[in-house]
From TrEMBL:
<dbReference type="GO" id="GO:0043093">
    <property type="term" value="P:FtsZ-dependent cytokinesis"/>
</dbReference>
<keyword id="KW-0717">Septation</keyword>
<dbReference type="GO" id="GO:0008360">
    <property type="term" value="P:regulation of cell shape"/>
</dbReference>
<keyword id="KW-1133">Transmembrane helix</keyword>
<dbReference type="InterPro" id="IPR001460">
    <property type="entry name" value="PCN-bd_Tpept"/>
</dbReference>
<dbReference type="Pfam" id="PF00905">
    <property type="entry name" value="Transpeptidase"/>
</dbReference>
<keyword id="KW-0645">Protease</keyword>
<dbReference type="GO" id="GO:0006508">
    <property type="term" value="P:proteolysis"/>
</dbReference>
<feature type="active site" description="Acyl-ester intermediate">
    <location>
        <position position="336"/>
    </location>
</feature>
<keyword id="KW-0121">Carboxypeptidase</keyword>
<feature type="domain" description="Penicillin-binding protein transpeptidase">
    <location>
        <begin position="289"/>
        <end position="585"/>
    </location>
</feature>
<dbReference type="GO" id="GO:0008658">
    <property type="term" value="F:penicillin binding"/>
</dbReference>
<dbReference type="GO" id="GO:0009252">
    <property type="term" value="P:peptidoglycan biosynthetic process"/>
</dbReference>
<dbReference type="InterPro" id="IPR005311">
    <property type="entry name" value="PBP_dimer"/>
</dbReference>
<dbReference type="InterPro" id="IPR050515">
    <property type="entry name" value="Beta-lactam/transpept"/>
</dbReference>
<dbReference type="GO" id="GO:0071555">
    <property type="term" value="P:cell wall organization"/>
</dbReference>
<dbReference type="GO" id="GO:0008955">
    <property type="term" value="F:peptidoglycan glycosyltransferase activity"/>
</dbReference>
Amino acid sequence: MIRQARTVAGRRQDKYAVKPKLERWRVWVVLSCLLGLFALLLGRGLYLQTWNEGFLQDQGDARYRRTLKLDSNRGMITDRNGEPLAISTPVQSIWLSPRSMRVLPAGEQRSKDWKQGDDDELVPVSREEVKSLATMLGISNDELLAKLNETRKNKNGEDVKSDFLWVKRHISPADAKRVLALNVPGVYSQTEYRRYYPAGEVMAHVVGFTNVDGKGQEGFEMTKEAMLSGKPGSRTVIRDRRGYIVEDVSTIIPPQEGQTLQLSIDRRIQYLAYRELKNAVDNSKAVGGAIVVLDARTGEVLAMANAPSYNPNSRAKIDPAHKRNRALTDLYEPGSTMKAITVAMALNAGKVTPTTVIQTGNGTMSIGPATIKDDHAVGAATVEHIIQKSSNVGAAKMALMMDREDMSNFFHDVGFGERLNTGFPGESPGRVRPWKTWRPIEQATMAYGYGVSVSVMQMARAYQIFAGNGEVHPVTFTKLVAPAPGKQVVSAETAAQVRKMLEMVTQPGGTATRAQVVGYRVGGKTGTAKKLVNGVYSDTARVGSFVGLAPISNPRLIVAVMIDEPSFDLRYGGLVAAPVFSNVVAGTLRLLGVPPDAPTTNILLPGNEPEVKEET
């Protein structure tokens, strides 16, 4: 009974109890909040997927997408006969990613359970592995550790490690294979190309060299960079954070190989020229020297060498001073080699003939306070003998017969004071002062090579007017199919007259008997000029030079030799430069198959009289 009464009472309480009622506005508030959040998420998604897609894509690409450069094979440089002068060989370069590597503390080893490809945050590398890698690469352990720990500032100013770091460039594939065999995680190799120069120092100043990235630094490697380098290809890939390539994401663009550059240089003649020049520089204890060999008919450069030289295969050991291309960039006062130009000018202008007698007296001539002197008195002499004996007074008198403007124009016609436009870096135009500023003494001294500065290449080119019919052709380092049109400077008759005088210079009584070649008639002119040192002509420093043609009956070669500051007893051009000409011409004419134009007994040496020497 009691239980039933309680039950009835409970029901009465439930009947009259107040039940909570959910207000309609609260429902709409909650629903609105949920819908608002959904709309916010939807808007954010649309913003990220539509309006800000490019930014996010760039961020993702920056972390995982990489465009790999596919190096093109650099074009080969060859001589005129197709012999290689510069070639590219495949090599390996070792790299790693310090940002993805963690060097373990000393004594700690990598877990045995770890394997390449595990999803660890960083690749663990032990100190022992770092030491083995450094030893194999030939660098110090401390240097390698420093590279692994090196940091740089990012855009946010934070210190971060590099994603990519070269450790050793350009090693042989066999060495790279041994490095990878160490199985140090995070170390990779990449194929590159290294330039190799078979001729070494013999061809250094012509070909030049490239840097470690394959960019031309000197010579034709630099001037023909666009032609030789080709165009690199590309490969776009996705990499994980350890550097593994996951997949290719675009079509591979193959590289375009560089073109082959064929020069006019003949490797055999170049070797002869460099060998003889180097011997002369070494034997005379000279500061340096240069030689140029031109094809007399076309203007092609068959050889151009300098001493001292350098080995382009060893970039790290190149002395910057040895990279100077003296034949094209260095200027010197040519001395008596200029006298042939002066005589040609006077002959062509009708001022003199080969047999015109010029009185040189006792070998002195005064112009105002200045005095011009001959190294030895010639007296009354024909124009032919003035060249043969190398008379300064005689050359000066012929120059003073000329109008200043006409003389200046003639110098420019043969290429003095003008760039040769060979395309070679650092080419000097030389120096010829404006004719309006010339005083009589300056006009006179220019006749025998003072007051005008030229390069060895310019002197070789100027002598082209004597090699044929009086024309001068552009100088070129590119092999020609046919000679370029020439510029007529003197008449063919004048050219023949000067050739005869140049041959007399190499005969007894001339200053260049050491230039003679067995079996061939040759001609040329010696020069011995004082050097300007600190604005004053030195009493000891000289430049000995010789420029000549061979064979004189039908010139095929023009050879210009310059020796800078030989020992004082060998300062004369006839002693130090003429023998270089003789040896180079003898070998070159035989290499080219030029038939002899004289008997093998044609060598004529001075008799009892002393050898004629000149100094201007």
